[in-house]
Each structure stands twice: as structure tokens, then as C-alpha cells.
Write a structure and sequence with these properties.
Layout (H helix, E strand, L loop, with lengths): L3 E2 L10 E4 L8 E7 L8 H5 L9 E7 L6 H4 L7 E4 L10 H11 L4 E5 L9 H11 L25 H4 L7 E2 L2 E2 H4 L4 H4 L7
Parallel strand pairs: 3-4, 3-6, 4-5
Antiparallel strand pairs: 1-2, 2-5, 7-8
Length: 195
């Protein structure tokens, strides 16, 4: 795994590029962030099975602290860019710093910021591309179904239908309660799931 060290001046960063892809023109960049808390990056598993060609999208991981996650290493072949910011552990994490680093590193026309521990269907990246083909000057939010049933932890790649049933706290007849909310969607949607 190639690695290069870059030390930022006037900041607590000690940025390390663990992996940098030669991919030059992906349509979509998926930016996934961690602050040494994620136990699973199972989104990477689902990205292996997309209906679009692998050249259509790139995956960028940004770690806030200094951890090289074993959970990411299992899917290293799916990761195009991997940046470790190396912020000292005495600092509280800031997602916006990670998002900005991921955006700067991206090469895609469309940037998706999302959760690395989400399940997505095979048409996920195609759905993003199709939306922006029709509405290029827009923002797309894909809400997330949440299931709190302990039988899904640790994560074992259950069928989608199982996750949408027993323990799914926001399934309202096949839509998330946030998508159906016309009164206060700002507080019922999970904007970090896929924006």
C-alpha cells in the first residue's frame, strides 16, 4: 500500500495519503468519513455490486485522527482515495473538516457525502447519476431507513427486507418518516446518510 506523508503547517494536522487512485474522470465521488469510531464499513461491500461500471465512481475515505481501520482494509480494493488527517486525539472531531478534505481530493463531477455503515441497493450510484442527468443544478438527499433491532449487530449482511421490518423505526409504508414529513423534515430526515 503506497503511503506519503505531508505535514500541514500552522495546524494540528499531520496528513497522510494512504492511497491515491489514478482514476481521472469518475462521474461520482462518494466521500465517507470516520473519526476512529466505525466498526463496519459495509457500504463498501455494496459498492462492489453496483449496476454502473466501476469507472463511473470513486470512493474517498477520510479519517480524522490517525487510525488505519482494519474494517476498511477488508475492502481496500474498493477504496480509491484514503486520507488520514492525523489530528491529535485531544481535539474533538469536526465532520466539516473531513468533508472538505474529501471534496478537495475528489475528481468526480458529483460529490456524495454519506454513511459508510449503510446498506445500498445495486442501483444506488445509478440513481445518483440519473438524478443529476435530469437536474444538474440540484441537491439530492436519499434518506436512510434505521433499524435498532440488536439481532443486526454486529452486522452480518442481512436481506434488505429483514432490515425494513422488525425494528425499523422509521418505515412508513415503504418510505422513511422523514421523507413523508411535511411539517418538520429538517429534524426527521437523516441528511448525513446520503447527500
Amino acid at each position: 500500500m503506497p503511503s506519503s506523508d505531508v505535514t500541514a503547517t500552522h495546524s494540528p494536522l499531520s496528513v497522510r495519503v494512504v492511497k491515491r487512485s489514478a482514476r481521472t474522470a469518475p462521474k461520482v465521488t462518494l466521500v465517507l468519513v470516520d473519526w476512529s469510531v466505525r466498526e463496519s464499513f459495509h457500504l463498501l461491500h455494496y459498492l462492489k455490486h453496483q449496476t454502473v461500471s466501476r469507472g463511473a465512481f470513486e470512493v474517498t475515505i477520510v479519517e480524522f485522527y490517525d487510525r488505519i481501520s482494519d474494517a476498511i482494509m477488508k475492502f481496500e480494493d474498493v477504496v480509491d482515495n484514503w486520507i488520514v488527517l492525523g489530528v491529535p486525539r485531544t481535539y474533538y472531531y469536526h465532520k466539516h473538516l473531513m468533508y472538505n478534505a474529501g471534496i478537495i481530493a475528489s475528481r468526480g463531477e458529483i460529490i456524495m457525502i454519506g454513511d459508510s455503515d449503510a446498506m445500498v441497493r445495486e442501483t444506488f450510484v445509478q440513481t445518483i447519476m440519473d438524478h443529476f442527468d435530469k437536474e444538474p443544478r440540484s441537491v439530492l438527499h436519499i434518506d436512510q431507513f434505521r433499524n435498532n433491532n440488536p439481532k443486526f449487530y454486529p452486522f452480518k449482511y442481512p436481506p434488505f427486507e429483514d432490515v425494513l421490518n422488525d425494528g425499523c423505526v422509521n418505515n412508513a409504508d415503504g418510505q422513511t418518516t422523514g421523507v413523508r414529513d411535511n411539517v418538520d423534515p429538517l429534524h426527521t430526515r437523516n441528511y448525513g446518510a446520503a447527500m
